[in-house]
Each structure stands twice: as structure tokens, then as C-alpha cells.
Amino acid sequence: ELRHRASPWQRNLGYPLAMLGLLALTGISVLIVCFHVLELLLDDAAMPRGMQDTSLGQVSFSIFGSFGAALQVVLILYLMVSSVVGFYSSPLFTRLLPERQDTPLTKIIGNCVSLLVLSSALPVFSRTLGITRFDLLGDFGRFNWLGNFYIVFLYNMGFAGLTTLCLVKRVSWAVQAELIRAFGEDG
């Protein structure tokens, strides 16, 4: 119903651009994680440990300078939004979705707790995946398990593998459905 009410500009330009943007952000995330996996295999300094006396502004946190830092911010925001969407899309938590003007207080508290947990895990998540090396002033790099190569390696491989699988599945199903619809109308 929303698709039918959308303007032709939205349908023909807006939705495809949004889809390409999401595909690009997902692809860049997977490429950065794959690069981080290679760094983990070759260099022990790639482990997501805490920073040692690095003052903010004296050292660049990205090899691409300002562009890389902006890309890191965009990727972290993308990961934040996608984790919230994924959380509320899971079958276990769909009942937690707030309803307009009809949300009980216990559901509001549950949403607040869920969003607090997700936002607290985001710095560790982005640091473990190698998307950023910035500690976000929380000293998250001092967790003991962040020094364990196998945990960090498997976490990165799991993210890269599952994200790629999800991306291929969604894109291939959408392409198959579109081809079936296009050839079904002609035949």
C-alpha cells in the first residue's frame, strides 16, 4: 500500500538509491572487517586492546584521514540503526515494539533497557570488528576477552560470513522475484 501511494520519483529514484546506499554501506562494512581479519592474522597490534596514552587530535584514527574518520562515523551510525532494526525484527522482540498512544509503561521501560544495552554494546562491537580504534572515552579496550585472538577472530569471521550470507540471500531473492514478475507479466 505504501508503494502504491509513493510518488513516481520515490519509486523510481528514491527507493533504488536507498537500496544502493544500504548495499554500499554493508559492502564497505564487510570489506573493512575482512581487512581487519587479515590484519589480525598478520599483526598482533590489530587486536582491539586499549589505547596507550594517545591524546585525542594528535594521532589520526584512520589511515584515510578526515574522509576515513567520516566514513567510520557513518558506518557506526549504520551499524547502530541496523542493530536496532534487527533487534525489533527478531521474532522474540516484535512484541516489544511501541504502539502509538497505546504503549504500557512496562513496555516503555523494556524499550529503554533494550536501547541502553544496544547503545552500550556499540563501542565494543565497532572496536572488535576493527571499524574504529577510538575508545570513545570509555576505555572499552581493557576487557580481557578483547586480547583473546580466537574470540576476536571468530567474532570477525562470524560477522563477515553472516552479513555476506544475508546480503546475498536478500539481493538474490529480490532479483529472482523481480525477474519472475517481469517474465510472468510478459508470458
TrEMBL record:
Signal peptide: none annotated. One of its GO terms (cellular component) is plasma membrane. One of its GO terms (biological process) is Wnt signaling pathway. One of its GO terms (molecular function) is transmembrane signaling receptor activity. It is found in: Cell membrane; Endoplasmic reticulum membrane. Its main location: membrane. Keywords: Cell membrane, Endocytosis, Endoplasmic reticulum, Membrane, Receptor, Transmembrane, Transmembrane helix, Wnt signaling pathway. It is a multi-pass membrane protein. The keyword Transmembrane helix applies. The chain crosses the membrane at residues 12-38, 58-88, 108-125, 145-168. The keyword tRNA processing does not apply. InterPro entries: LIMR (IPR008075), LMBR1-like_membr_prot (IPR006876). Belongs to the LIMR family. This is LMBRL protein. It comes from Pteruthius melanotis. The gene is Lmbr1l_0.
